[in-house]
Task: inverse folding
């Protein structure tokens, strides 16, 4: 049973069928103020090896932990995430992943929630935190956006694009310790409010971080985000002009790579700021 029916309804009305399909959001269970959300993106939204991109953890956090914040707070209006973070313990693999989340504290102006990220067997593989604020006067229904083919941008790298990159139509430009990912924010990745869903912003920005980090680690290394912190500055409103996700590596050691990133809107202003630390491990010979 959902403890706060109004708060739950105010959240799920923002999710279109297209957004659910692209994000792989499914099998949601709400028990009082505890939320369990499963994510299982299709083959077109995976890495080259078939594993789930780490950026999809942003969808888990924004949906699963976001609902926990709303239903636990008692708000009867919609809300938005203005910051969240996640940490992973290892590679995600190809199997569905989930999050078990609950609110930890709230006032009339802010709610905090946390979640445990689980693998398909229910074993913990990470954790997440989210901060949400209420927004009165949000839409009471959602209009399903039209199907839109992605606009493909130039891929300026010897690295092969993953299925997720092709499906989104991402462009990539690699520089020294820097990666720029370009895309057009389509309504199929947006909430009912005409702006990119917070999980989509996290996914797109992390693609830039993924390639920036990949460019500085050894070819036989694996890197995992042991911390990913995103703050939303302004809505990433959908339109016809491209946005750039710019990631820069600020520190490299044998075990860790630290990167900072932004989503830059056509106006030149940042919609989101990110700081991430990736742990680096080397493949062991058989």
Result:
């Amino acid at each position: 049973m959902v403890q706060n029916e109004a708060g739950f309804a105010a959240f799920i009305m923002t999710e279109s069928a297209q957004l659910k399909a692209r994000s792989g959001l499914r099998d949601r269970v709400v028990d009082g103020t505890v939320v369990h959300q499963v994510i299982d993106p299709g083959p077109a939204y995976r890495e080259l090896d078939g594993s789930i991109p780490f950026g999809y953890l942003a969808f888990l956090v924004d949906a699963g932990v976001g609902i926990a914040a709303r239903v636990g707070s008692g708000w009867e209006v919609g809300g938005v995430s203005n910051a969240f973070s996640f940490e992973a313990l290892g590679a995600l693999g190809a199997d569905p992943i989930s999050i078990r989340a609950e609110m930890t504290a709230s006032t009339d102006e802010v709610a905090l929630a946390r979640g445990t990220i689980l693998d398909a067997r229910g074993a913990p593989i990470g954790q997440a935190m989210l901060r949400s604020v209420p927004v009165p006067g949000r839409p009471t229904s959602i209009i399903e956006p039209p199907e839109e083919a992605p606009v493909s941008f130039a891929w300026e790298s010897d690295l092969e694009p993953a299925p997720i990159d092709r499906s989104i139509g991402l462009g990539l430009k690699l520089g020294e310790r820097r990666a720029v990912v370009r895309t057009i924010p389509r309504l199929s990745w947006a909430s009912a409010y005409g702006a990119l869903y917070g999980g989509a912003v996290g996914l797109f920005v992390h693609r830039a971080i993924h390639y920036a980090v990949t460019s500085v680690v050894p070819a036989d290394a694996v890197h995992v985000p042991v911390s990913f912190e995103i703050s939303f500055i302004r809505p990433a409103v959908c339109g016809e002009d491209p946005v750039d996700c710019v990631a820069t590596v600020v520190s490299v050691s044998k075990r860790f790579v630290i990167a900072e990133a932004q989503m830059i809107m056509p106006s030149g202003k940042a919609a989101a700021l990110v700081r991430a630390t990736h742990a680096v491990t080397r493949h062991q010979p058989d």
Remarks:
- The two ends are 50 Å apart (CA to CA).
- The chain has two domains: 5-135, 155-282.
